[in-house]
Amino acid sequence: MSRVLRGAWSRRGALTTLVLMTLVVVGGSVTVLQLADAAGTSRWLTAPLLLLGAVAVPSIGAELAVARREEIGLARLRGIHGARLWRFLLVEPLLAIVLGTLLGLAVGAAGTVVATRTWLAETAPALERPALLAAVGIAGAGLAIVGLSAAAALREPLAVQVSTRRRPRRATTLAVFLSVLVIVGAAVAAYRSRAADGDPDLVVLLGPALVGLALGQVAIWVVRIAARVLTPATERRGLGAFLAARRLARADDLVTPVRLVVAAAVVGTLALSGAVAVSGWTRDQAAVEVPGQRTIDATELGAMGAVDLTEQADPEGTHLLATAIVRNETRLGERRAYVDAGRWDAVVGDFYDGSPARAASDAVGRLGGGAAPFQVAGDRLTVTASGVEVPPAKAFIGPGGQEVRSGGGRAEVVLNFVTEQNTSGSASVQLRVAADGTAVSRRVRVPDCAEVCTVTSLQVGRDDQSFFDRRDFVVLLEGVAVGDTDVLDRAWVPDLASVAGSLDNRFIPGYEAPDPLVVNRTDGLQVAMLPDAAIELRLDMAGDAVPLLTAGDAGEGGPQALDLAGDDRATEVVGVARSLPLLGTAGSLADIRTAAAGSGPTVPSAEVQVVAGDSTPQAVLDQVAEATGATWRTRESVQQSLGDRFGGDQSVAYALTALACALVALLALGAGVARHLRDYRRDVASLRVLGISTGTARRAGRAELASLTVLVLVAVVAGGWLAVTLLLDGLPLLAVPVAGLALDTAPHLWPLAVPAVVAAAAMVLVGGRARAVRATTTRPSLLREEEGR
């Protein structure tokens, strides 16, 4: 064991890198996997991290094998082969991987608790069985990759293994094949992302890493070929340019890690673009759903109850607005919303400026129609009527031997209304109309209308003992008053459906309805009774079409206006928009007061809200909260709830994956620099022996570093643009609702620029250390000291 520990200490640089790499991959994978489980999304969001880890680890395994070349060669000379040699090779990386895995599990457990507590509603358990199994699998895969690297070292010629100098070698056929395979995989991922429907598969989720690795590999090939082609031309530009071109064509310390740096930056670009897309969508969708800074639920009051509340709390109409939404996502033709168009401009104002719903918001003022809900107030209903044609009373023996009387002017008038609590109500008055035209009057209490109620219909018919009396019975209603308001001041028309039902009654064959049934006279309302049911009268809305703003496909027959109760109304489409306030990309928008005229109670599926503007006084807000029994929600809370409801946490999981990928790339870059730093200093010392100054060597290093930095910038921007264009649509960022706004997945400048600048900065900072030329560390005597070892 002491020999193993001494050997591990002598190779602590490479082993520390392996520990840190394992820690990052295991910790990141455990965190993302458990966050994805808690958020209900795919566990394979960790796929890019696993792929980059698998690409980065072989270089560490190769470094360990190179560091032990002499030991391997001497062991083989002493006859150590087979299992003994493998045990000799793998015990150190095994210990490093086990240590990294244990540390990674600890980091992943802490990361899971912090991430779920921060971004999810509930904190997930620190470690669960899938995470433990994943960690074991990652550790096993890492050891296998290191073993393959060691096997490659074992297959090297003995002379190479015992050599003290490392020289550049051509890429093997396997390495070239894997590079081409990565490029093909990136193309397949792009195709499947654009062609597939539904949840993405593993290839699509690997797509960002594949695209980044492909662009990184292409960048390596480009710099190698360009350096070889341009080497002769650099002879005329000075020795520094020549040395830079030679190193770019042959050295591996900075060029090879470019692949991982570009891949991690591309994954970061996609994650950042996805986060920007999700944030923009939730912001715009929140504005669609809530046309103001605050909203409160008023569903229990119903649409007209909410309107009355806004009138009481804000009589000037400058702060509060009532809305109602019937989402109906399964039948988009009936998806609709209602707003108080008269208050819209004052309360909403320029809230939708810069949003897709701006055009529709500017047109809301055109929705106000001539119709308005017929509201009355009073605790008594008074009905006054006289007979126009009254059948005489008659008696007959009915079923069961009982005497039944009909005729004689027995009538019943029913007033139907909607209360402040959004419930249906009615008041019935029975009276006997005289045949000589003398007016009779009856009064009943209507407590539900003491404050206010909305009149919906009248029913006028014979009393229940006079049904199936086919004799003509015509009355003149001279007054139907609630409090001081006579509902007969409005024009009334018969409901054709109730009339058709009576005419189709098979128990009175051949019956023909009186003509006319209803006459709106200057002295009252003349009504001819039906024989088997009361005739239902509705407010005359013939000239009062409901103006609509529509969006999306309204289905066969075009848009159809519906009142608050869901009944058809005459329709007038005043505009077609790409997106509507409250509704998004599908549905119809109408004025709440116009739609309430003659309507029954608001349908139970409606979501009624009161919206408050920015400058609403606190006293007004408190009054509304007390009346509704609910609490105000801010626009920010609505935005957060949208992200939670439609899976916005997936972008968080992908961002954590991108962060772990960046750490992997940074470790790989730092390990590459540390691995070759001694060789570079020896090369500079050799140049100084030949009389080349440190200034020339320093200029060559800067030129090399500047070339690689520009290459990384270009490759990251190009790769990020390709990844966002080809892959972002296929990633599970959001479950956009049927009528929700489209997710903007187009490339944007700053999400492309930020990862590219960060990647370039990493190249400058880490590569600057690799190309630092100091007189003390590159003195020619180093060559003599190495030869003496």
Descriptive notes:
It is a single chain. The chain has 789 residues and is an alpha+beta fold. Helices cover 51% and strands 16% of the residues. It contains 22 helices and 24 strands. The strands form five sheets. The chain has an eight-stranded mixed beta sheet. Strands 4, 8, 9, 11, 14 and 17 form a six-stranded antiparallel beta sheet that branches. Strands 5, 10, 12, 13, 15 and 16 form a six-stranded antiparallel beta sheet that branches. The longest helix has 41 residues, at 649-689. The radius of gyration is 41 Å and the shape is elongated. It starts with a helix and ends with a helix.
Q: Which structural class do the helices and strands define? A: alpha+beta
* Strand line-up across the major sheet: 21-18-22-3-2-23-1-24
The helix count comes to: 22
Largest pleated sheet:
8 strands, mixed
Task: Report the C-alpha radius of gyration, rounded.
Answer: 41 Å
Mean pLDDT: 80
How does the overall form come out from the CA principal axes?
A: elongated
Helical proportion, percent range:
40-55%
The first-to-last residue Cα distance is 27 Å
Q: Low-confidence segments, ≥5 residues, pLDDT <50?
A: none
Overall strand count: 24
Q: How much of the polypeptide forms β-strand, as a percent range? A: 15-25%
Question: What's the topology here?
Answer:
Elements (H helix, E strand, L loop, with lengths): L1 H9 L1 H28 L7 H21 L1 H9 L4 H38 L9 H26 L3 H4 L11 H23 L6 H33 L4 H12 L7 H32 L4 E4 L4 H12 L6 E7 L9 E4 L1 H7 L10 H5 L12 E2 L3 E10 L4 E4 L5 E4 L3 E9 L5 E9 L7 E6 L7 E10 L11 E9 L2 E2 L5 E3 L1 H8 L14 E4 L2 E5 L6 E5 L6 E6 L9 E2 L5 E2 L1 E6 L10 E5 H5 L10 E6 L5 H11 L4 E2 H11 L3 H41 L4 H34 L21 H22 L10 H8 L1
Parallel strand pairs: 3-22, 18-21
Antiparallel strand pairs: 1-23, 1-24, 2-3, 2-23, 4-11, 5-10, 5-12, 6-7, 8-9, 8-11, 11-17, 12-13, 12-16, 14-17, 15-16, 18-22, 19-20
Helix pairs in contact: 2-3, 2-5, 2-6, 2-19, 3-6, 3-9, 3-11, 3-19, 5-6, 8-9, 9-10, 9-11, 9-20, 10-20, 11-18, 11-19, 11-20, 11-21, 19-21, 20-21
